[in-house]
Design goal:
This protein has 210 residues and is an alpha/beta fold. It contains 7 helices and 7 strands, in the order E-H-E-H-E-H-E-H-E-E-H-H-E-H. It has a single domain, classed as Spore Coat Polysaccharide Biosynthesis Protein SpsA, Chain A (Alpha-Beta Complex), CATH 3.90.550. Helix content is 30%, strand content 18%.
Length: 210
């Protein structure tokens, strides 16, 4: 995808390789919207991009492929999302990557479109400001090709936190049009909150009212 005349294309990547230790069950398999969340997010990204991949562990590959989705196996083991981003750039270093984690059950097309419209390809990345702590949200971010070298250098220095990479780089930070959409569901309590929220469509109550 090219947008607003930008020459560097963008591909989509769903982060689904985590072990979901805090949740106690694989977050990527939860069916918030009638299908596994990893597939729901991939389908949403396919609205915008010709090439969408699911980042996964080696033991997840065959099932994802059998459902008709493309994968990028993690080739930087033990680095979590940081390794997934590097694996994407190793696979295709000359594209920008819109990274979306599978633990964002309220993410929607409008929020993704807003981030894409605000993209500045001259920056290292374009990211949302988290409404929960006002820090950049690395797991729904457009990482430009120039970020690849920065991420590699930081890894060599022992720094593998994607949020700190954003904090220490020249990035564009965007306020989300729908702050609730950036809510991370990582624990059983979060699971209950989102289930309650989704029981009131459209979700106009707001997380603070649950």
């Amino acid at each position: 995808m090219t947008l607003n005349g930008n020459k560097v294309t963008i591909s989509g990547l769903v982060l689904a390789g985590g072990k979901s230790t805090r949740m106690g069950t694989d977050k990527s398999l939860i069916e918030w919207h009638g299908k596994q969340q990893r597939f729901h997010v991939a389908d949403m990204l396919q609205i915008f991009f010709d090439e969408v991949y699911i980042s996964c562990r080696s033991d997840q590959q065959s099932e994802i492929l059998s459902n008709g989705y493309e994968v990028i196996p993690d080739s930087f083991e033990g680095l979590g999302p940081y390794g997934a981003i590097l694996s994407a750039f190793k696979f295709k270093p000359d594209v920008a990557w819109l990274i979306v984690a599978c633990d964002l059950p309220l993410i929607n097309e409008e929020v993704l479109r807003h981030l894409l419209e605000e993209r500045n390809p001259d920056k290292v990345a374009t990211t949302f400001r988290s409404p929960f702590d006002n820090l950049p949200e690395p797991l729904i971010t457009i990482w430009e090709p120039r970020s690849h070298e920065i991420l590699l250098t930081r890894m060599e220095e022992g720094n593998t936190c994607p949020r700190k990479a954003l904090l220490n780089s020249d990035v564009k930070i965007v306020d989300p049009s729908d702050p609730d959409a950036l809510f991370n569901a990582n624990t059983p309590d979060d699971l209950k909150r989102v289930k309650d929220l989704l029981a009131w469509p459209p979700y106009e109550r707001g997380l603070e009212k649950i």
